[in-house]
Amino acid sequence: MVADGETFDFIIVGAGSAGCVLASRLTADAGTRVLLLEAGGKDTNPWIHIPAGFYRNIYHPKITWQFETEPLAALGGRRMAWPRGKVLGGSSSINGLIYIRGQKQDFDQWRQLGNPGWSYDDVLPYFRRAECHELGADEHHGADGPLSVSTLRAEHALHDAFMDAAVEAGHKRNPDFNGADQEGVGPLQLTVRNMRRCSTAVAYLRPAMKRPNLRVEIRALAHRVLFEGKRAVGIEYLQDGVLRRARARREVLLSGGSINSPQLLQLSGVGDPEHLRPLGIAMVHALPAVGANLQDHLGCRVIFKVANVETLNEVSRSWLRQVRTGLEYLFARRGALMMGAAPIGLFARTRPGLAAPDVQYQFLAGSFEKPGGIMHKFPACSAVCIPCRPESRGWLRIRSADPAAPPAIQPNYLATQNDRDVMVAGLRIARRIFHSPAMRRYAVEEFWPGADMDTDAGWLEHVAQTASTTFHPTSTCMMGPHDNAVVDPTSLKVRGLDAIRVIDASVMPAVVSGNTNATVIMIAEKGADMLLQRGAAAAVGARAA
Ligand SMILES: Cc1cc2nc3c(=O)[nH]c(=O)nc-3n(C[C@H](O)[C@H](O)[C@H](O)COP(=O)(O)OP(=O)(O)OC[C@H]3O[C@@H](n4cnc5c(N)ncnc54)[C@H](O)[C@@H]3O)c2cc1C
């Protein structure tokens, strides 16, 4: 236990994708004392570490936060579950393991928005520093970092059929979505090492926990940042029913993720006075952008019933098949248990003239009503269509001064015509692939949305009924050069305050074209260099621990 008022050099809130990286990099210097506070517990649940365990744990009450959105206007007014990791490793311990950095254009656009140091050429060394890529080191990949990245090993007739069908429909093959070009169809890469999940807790934190200068406190919920004037000096947190205080000699680092970092700032009196004062929160600093600019990737599925092939739906219903799958995993080191959220990916353009793909697809030889839900009783396969760069932005606000109360979350999905058009065009592309000859060998009937429907309004109704988050919230503490930003791009310091930075998914100026974990780890690697005042030149080859 931390003694009341004990002082550290840095206090990090949140042992998630970003927080574990920071804890490792900062404590490499034996003279730097770091306290890492994590609201969740240890990552001992065995299903965390088996890649396919992802589907079992999405809504596990002991290792996840179970947030819920406000009613969603474009989705018929329904609310949507938004789980996040609440365990060592954070969401990197419960995510779908898919490793995709995003496109070169994403980071070049971040730079164009007024964020020096965040163009693709600037950030590539940090991606490479993090990676221990199975493909080895080259200009695109790193091989000496702590984070293992492997190409998926799960062969299935439907995987081949989907890739062949995509090629028949005019898409190219792409063996490496993290290489020179993201476009095309191919196997996904996963954060997997020796058949097991490589979360940031595994990759970065475990080795660093051997160091005497790192203190990790679990089941420790940060209640507020302590300020003296505009300077952050510590954290007040609840652990085992006791309210404790720890002090930071140098800085407080918020790595609670896109929901919790803005929540903690607002609880601490940093946000919009018109929102916080009526809740009885004493203002420290007016910064209305805290919680604004929320983005997320929305996903919607096309599902086909299949024949002449076994799917994951049957496996999920048969003990015998599950035993076979377990043996395949243990002894052949491949098969369904090696899969994360999906085995096959595709990036495509919904219209000619686009500089880069604007939709991502994930194909699965199985189907369900919602991710983490029960699989269908009939043999089927599915492709989820995920527009890469939504324009819509929402917001997040605390509802009360109670740190344990979930905030109100409004992602404003599909608020622009372009977002709706891309989703509809993307779903039509998915349907076309299922109708290509290679898939027609198996696909016998369109189940979702149903073959008779092909109007824009019909597709949007399908989206309203069935679409779900793909768990990628970002930008609620957005970096930028202006007042509509929370952190400064050159330091990730909170604008107008001293000794406090936000380093996690919430600082992205815009969500990237891919899955967000890789980019969060890059942000934390770069954030650590900002704290250590090192340049990108030192980035590649720096091993953790
Ligand atoms: C179900 C799911 C599937 C996903 N699938 C993929 C995928 O396949 N590929 C991919 O790239 N990305 C995926 N993502 C997204 C990716 O994992 C996240 O973008 C990334 O992990 C976010 O990192 P972070 O550090 O910002 O936050 P997190 O990793 O969520 O870490 C935040 C940590 O802070 C802790 N915390 C929060 N508030 C407090 C507090 N007040 N006091 C103490 N501790 C606190 C939390 O418990 C948590 O451990 C998925 C996410 C989810 C939830």
How would you describe the overall organization of this protein?
This protein is α+β, with helices and mostly antiparallel strands. It has 15 helices and 26 strands. The strands form 7 sheets. Strands 1, 2, 11, 12, 13, 14 and 26 form a 7-stranded mixed beta sheet that branches. Strands 7, 18, 19, 20, 21, 24 and 25 form a 7-stranded antiparallel beta sheet that branches. β9 and β10 (196-197) form a beta hairpin. α1 packs parallel to α15 (517-532). It is globular, with a radius of gyration of 22 Å. Flavin-adenine dinucleotide is lined by residues 13-19, 37-40, 58, 83-86, 90-92, 94-98, 220-222, 255-257, 260, 264, 340-341, 471-472, 504-505, 515-518, 520.
Main beta sheet, described?
Answer: 7 strands, mixed
Distance between the termini: 24 Å
The helix fraction, in percent, is 25-40%
What coarse outline follows from CA principal-axis ratios? globular
- Bound compounds: flavin-adenine dinucleotide
Structural class: alpha+beta
Poorly predicted regions: 540-545
Q: Tally the helices.
A: 15
Strand content: 15-25%
In round numbers, the mean pLDDT is 95
| Total E-strand runs | 26
Radius of gyration computed on alpha carbons: 22 Å
